[in-house]
Design brief:
By secondary structure, this protein is mainly alpha-helical. It has one domain. Helices cover 76% and strands 5% of the residues. It has a two-stranded antiparallel sheet. A hairpin with a 5-residue loop joins strand 1 and strand 2. The protein is flat and about 65 Å long.
């Protein structure tokens, strides 16, 4: 089960990198451009190649990345695919944890500010 979760997180992280992030020195943005992804006048991406279509959205890209991990899982030793997948899985986990904490912190802060206003107004 842990291997499956690791591969899921690695699939999401790699897909997110390929589709949404610029990367160091714009490496992923340049890769998307070479793959045929362009932007219209409203800054909406579109693809003019088959490879570009495969990299246009996280859902599409995650299928291809998941297919890669499946083949890698079937034909390589466990230590090798875990060695490659684990850094991406840890990165994905850290990002999700950060987003969860930010959301909870914002909710907690808003609740605290409402309570503080109530105290200042003498309602508490």
């Amino acid at each position: 089960m842990l291997i499956f979760l690791t591969l899921i997180l690695a699939t999401w992280r790699i897909s997110s990198l390929l589709v949404d992030e610029r990367g160091p020195r714009d490496v992923f943005a340049k890769l998307r451009y070479r793959a045929g992804i362009r932007f219209n006048m409203h800054s909406e991406p579109y693809a003019d190649t088959l490879l570009g279509e495969m990299l246009l959205c996280v859902w599409c890209t995650s299928f291809w990345v998941g297919l890669f991990w499946t083949l890698f899982f079937l034909f390589t030793p466990e230590w090798l695919y875990l060695l490659l997948a684990l850094p991406f899985a840890l990165s994905a986990g850290a990002i999700w944890f950060m987003k969860f904490m930010e959301r909870d912190f914002v909710a907690w802060r808003e609740q605290f500010l409402r309570w503080l206003e109530a105290v200042e107004d003498g309602a508490c």
